[in-house]
Amino acid sequence: MTTAQAKQHTWSSDDERQVLAAIESWAEKELKPVARHCDHADEYPFELVEQMKELGLFGATIGQHYGGLGLPASTYAKVVAGIARVWMAPTGIFNSHLIMAACVERFGTEQQKQDYLPRFASGELRGGLALTEPNAGTDLQSIRTTAVADADGYIVNGSKTWITNGIHGTCFALLAKTDPKAQPRHRGMSMFIAEKGEGFYAGKKLKKLGYRAIDSAELVLEDYRIPKARLIGGEEGKGFHHALGGLELGRINVAARGVGLAAAALQDSVRYSQQRQTFGKPISQHQAIQLKLGDMATRTEAARLLVEQAARKYDAGERCDMEAGMAKLFASEAAVENSLEAMRIHGGYSYSTEFDVERYFRDSPLMCIGEGTNEMQRIIIAKQLIERNPL
Question: In 3D, which of 22, 18, 164, 34 has the Cα closest to residue 86?
Fold first, then answer.
């Protein structure tokens, strides 16, 4: 039995219901009242982060023997969707953090796990994944950040951008080139556990259309020294593999966010269509609106089922890049389409900041870009189809 499978067997359906009920209650009581203000003001939700620590969200998928909740991905995805239905942005605070934790838990040495996972689980150390650079996003092999070995460890120089938790995070899974001349290029990439300190600091906070209140920032590394003991797995040249492994969980998370956003847009539209009247009756009784609602509901449910499929394969320890790609592709597009239809159903009020649909409209495109663009997901899906169905 894999570690992932062991996690899955520690949670019963009753346990899952209790967890989801607690998250739903917290989201309604704590998230909902502040979401609009924090989003419009682009204000970091410090109090919510402390509450998230208490709820165990920073250790949601970390094994119980390291102090985490040990949630299976299937339950974790439902948690993410439930929060995103109220406010999507906070899910990024713990998602990026948990991808970092997954890299350490899946690929790190036992000493690295003992040293870091309990502190990740408690939220004492928070951070994320430092992959993207100004000239390298989807093509990770084009990164320029270097880690040069010396007698004491490595000296790292470079910069990262669009890093979630970049300002308020303190520890990151950092991808760098340990052998820039390696061919193929991915063999020269390594992943490190990098804590902020001398030579490693946050640059400017990036302003965004949506996904506000959550810090996305540049990270700068100038002659940053990192001990050899923080090379994940203790072996150079495995960083690209580690990054891709972490992104499976990240894509399931992004897909779950898409489900949450799609559901929120549908929920608000169903409610508003019964309140708003035109030509003497609620607009929900007009066929044009019913057609929209029917499509929105179908997209939401289809997205949810794709996420469940990907999460189940992840929990079983099976390769799931195709399934995670399908879920991420479809759910993120469902969020975009549902948010646009919600705008149309709400009419002029959709442009008002007094309604949440304008936030759904701004937040949803991120899901089509983050954790690998949807164009790349289509390529991954196609390649896996061919690989799994050879002539």
Answer: 34
Does the N-terminal peptide bond of residue 72 adopt cis geometry, omega within 30 degrees of 0?
Answer: no
**DSSP β-ladder status, 171-177 and 127-130:** parallel
Do β-strands 146-150 and 153-164 pair in parallel, antiparallel, or remain unpaired? antiparallel
Three-state DSSP class for residue 336: helix
The span from the CA of 91 to the CA of 78, in Å, is: 12
- 367-384 pLDDT, tens digit per residue, is 999 888 999 999 999 999
Amino acid at 229: A
Q: Two tokens at 315?
A: 């929990």
Confidence of residue 248 (pLDDT cuts 50, 70, 90): confident
Report H helices in the chain.
3-9, 13-26, 32-41, 46-55, 73-84, 90-107, 110-122, 239-275, 287-315, 321-346, 357-369, 374-388
The DSSP line for 238-284 is -HHHHHHHHHHHHHHHHHHHHHHHHHHHHHHHHHHHHH-EETTEEGG
Same domain, 199 and 222: yes
Answer yes or no: do 266 and 354 share one domain: yes
Same domain, 261 and 335: yes
Rg (CA), the chain: 21
Domain of residue 67, residue span? 3-126
Same domain flag for 167 and 208: yes
Half-sphere exposure of 15 (CA within 13 A, CB side): 13
Residues 375 and 102: their CA atoms lie apart, in Å, by 25
Report the number of distinct structural domains present in the chain: 3
Tens-digit pLDDT profile for residues 83-138:
999 999 999 999 999 999 999 999 999 999 999 999 999 999 999 999 999 988 77
Could you list the active site residues? 371
Q: Which residues contact 354 (CB under 8 A, 6 or more apart)?
A: none
- Final residue belonging to a domain, choices 214, 237, 260: 237
Domain boundary among 192, 219, 237: 237
pTM: 0.93
Q: What crossing angle do the helices spanning 357-369 and 239-275 adopt, rounded to 10°?
A: 160
User: Looking at the domain assignment, is residue 192 inside a domain?
Assistant: yes
Structural domain contains residue 391: no
